[in-house]
Amino acid sequence: MNIYVSNLSFGVDSEDLLSHFSQYGKVNSINMVTDKLANQSKSSAMIEMPEQEQAEKAIAALNGLTLSGRPMILNRNKPVEAPVRRVRRTW
Fold first, then answer.
1. Which of 29, 57, 58, 59 is deepest in the core (most CB within 10 A)?
2. 5-30 pLDDT per residue, tens
């Protein structure tokens, strides 16, 4: 299950997030969202946990927790569905 984490302090890195989320289960990956031009964090991250139950526990426990002076906002990340293609009709 993917978890979207926002409102992170610019000083938070993947190791900080790993130490918090690994308390609730295995963490497959952490991707910090960065601004490519400024090479700076955009104060958000995507965290992948393989077990949905563990991810739900992490969301319940860590949502609103203050990390480096800012409360984290956690949401389930829904998979992106492919857009419905409209059929073009030719007459």
1. 58
2. 999 998 899 999 999 999 999 999 99
Question: With 0-12 CB in 10 A as exposed, 13-18 as middle and 19+ as buried, what is 87?
Answer: exposed
CATH class of the 2-76 domain in this structure:
alpha beta
User: How far is residue 48 from each of residues 18, 32, 39, 73, 83, measured CA to CA in Å?
Assistant: 11, 12, 23, 16, 24
- Distance, in Å, from the CA atom of 68 to the CA atom of 90, rounded to the nearest integer, reads 59
The position carrying tokens 């190791």 is: 15
Tokens at residue 6, please? 């926002």
